[in-house]
Write a structure and sequence with these properties.
Two copies of one chain form a homodimer. By secondary structure, the first copy, chain A, is α/β, with parallel strands linked by helices. Chain A is built from 14 helices and ten strands. In chain A, about 45% of the residues lie in helices and about 15% in strands. In chain A, helix 5 (about 85-100) links the parallel strand 3 (about 80) and strand 4 (about 100-105).
């Protein structure tokens, strides 16, 4: 029998929570009787609203936790990250908060609103051509050239531990849960949340959710190693990663019961439903676990207490109106 | 010197709160550092999210408070209300909760989604032609014919007291406020909230907000009596009432510092901003006080603590996408 040492434990998440106190939003937990009724008899669903987190997504948690651990020298030189989405805003915001210069590598065709938001947080933007250039290589080149610390989107113990504080807060606030659902892109959120939840509640069921088109996790867990897929054309843009993370994979493998999938139409229906019924703007990636919950494929949830991480709310108005049409 | 006896006092709101405990949602209070920064130096803004109330608006509070006071006979016979909007859903939901039959008089051209939602709560729908028939007369006829109690949308002490529980909860949760903003249609919400807030905090500034097109309150307060305007073509459909209420008017007159107005464009911008920046779906009527807050016309809010009632979140997807376009 071998014992695997996982890259993070509950204590890491607790340390992250202490760092984030008063800095990250302690996001509200929302419940709805009509959701509960729709999902099962006596079921209670608790939505952790990371769409109401600073920067509009959970990403600020991990970014701040990483940046807070920089040495004074590293802080003075600054950080670099590559992302066209929530990670960019999370890093830019955390950097501003800590007085650290931030450079974000974004594709030339990134939505103007995301570029503007990232710049508004004070970050310098370096653009690249998505079709001909490799963003990771560019970010590494910028890092080496300028002596910057590269902040990866998920594959770092401090990032993972930071994201786990979302589950820590949820469990602190609502008490024991039977089941926790979270979306999966690179796996930072789920690995952190699974670590926190399992640490606090050894019997909790943990389920990750991705789209059918972006099922790199499902495939990887099936064969027991990280499978690489072609760029998935899913509406859930936080799930367009092509492969599970190196550090996040073993954590999910060890702690999570299953990774399940939903269709693109189910995701859109969940976004609509969250917006029009629950009055919450949740981006497609964040709506993925809700899509599974509403599908009925989780089986009998009678009298179960279910937690769901709504991971973010950054969605362009034109994408939103396409979904609503 | 004459002393005016107002139709409700703080004790009425407190009694309503006791009735609503465990029945109405204790809606979350949301804050945002970027809002605070935009509004003033050291300003703190507290949004009371009645868009997350049952039925999607504050209306459930007043309706339930009224229906809970019915005699056993009245409960058995049932209630009738006229509304094409949030009051319909509030009454239907409160009636279902209390096992009271409900009839709702709605125009033939009411949005299908609102008719469906009201019917889904178990209410019987009676339709009328908005252009040729008088809904109030029809509701009164139905009431007399069937022996039903008519539940008015705002002009009733129990309705007003019920709506006031929103401000009561807000002040209980966040502590003292310097200023409270609420939207004004018939005045049920503002009169109740003003009563609660003034009762708890004698020095709080209370400001009502309506649109320039639906400025019956502004006009009425100026001349000191209820002015009737033509049907106002405002996007804020909760403000399409033509005249202040008979009971709500003296309360607002006595307790509220001013009723201020915003333009249609300012309302749309506030809806967009609440949705895209705060991730909250708030209907145009609910966004009206936020439009004023963002306009800068409230003057210097340095170090002030400001409460805002986000009254509801029921908006049709096509209206929403028009606003977002």
């Amino acid at each position: 029998m071998t014992t695997m040492v996982l890259p993070i434990g509950l204590a890491d998440v607790e340390r992250a929570a202490a760092r984030l106190r008063g800095v990250a939003n302690r996001t509200p937990v929302v419940t709805s009787r009509s959701v509960d009724r729709r999902v099962g008899v006596g079921t209670r669903v608790f939505f952790k609203c990371e769409n109401l987190q600073r920067g509009g997504a959970f990403k600020f948690r991990g970014a701040y936790n990483r940046l807070a651990a920089l040495t004074p020298d590293e802080r003075a030189r600054g950080v670099v990250a590559f992302s066209s989405g929530n990670h960019a805003q999370g890093v830019a915001l955390a950097a501003r908060e800590l007085g650290v210069p931030a450079t974000i590598v974004m594709p030339t065709d990134a939505p103007a609103s995301k570029v503007a938001a990232t710049r508004a947080y004070g970050a310098e933007i370096v653009t690249y051509d998505r079709l001909t250039e490799d963003r990771e290589a560019i970010a590494r080149a910028v890092a080496t050239e300028r002596g910057l610390v590269l902040v990866p989107p998920y594959d770092h113990p401090l990032i993972m531990a930071g994201q786990g504080t979302a589950a820590l807060e949820l469990l602190e606030e609502v008490g024991p849960l039977d089941l926790l659902l979270a979306p999966l892109g690179g796996g930072g959120l789920l690995s952190g949340c699974a670590t926190a939840a399992r640490g606090l509640a050894p019997d909790i069921r943990l389920i990750g959710v991705e789209t059918e088109l972006s099922n790199d996790w499902e495939q990887s867990l099936r064969v027991g190693e990280r499978v690489r897929i072609s760029p998935p054309p899913t509406i859930a843009d936080g799930m367009r990663t092509q492969q599970p993370g190196e550090l996040t994979f073993p954590v999910v493998q060890a702690l999570v019961e299953a990774v399940l999938t939903v269709s693109e139409d189910e995701v859109k229906e969940a976004v609509r439903w969250l917006l029009l019924r629950m009055k919450l703007l949740v981006e497609p990636t964040g709506a993925v676990p809700v899509a599974l919950l509403l599908s009925g494929r989780l089986g009998d949830l009678t009298d179960r207490r279910v937690g769901v991480i709504l991971s973010g709310g950054n969605v362009d108005p034109d994408v939103l109106c396409e979904i609503l049409a």
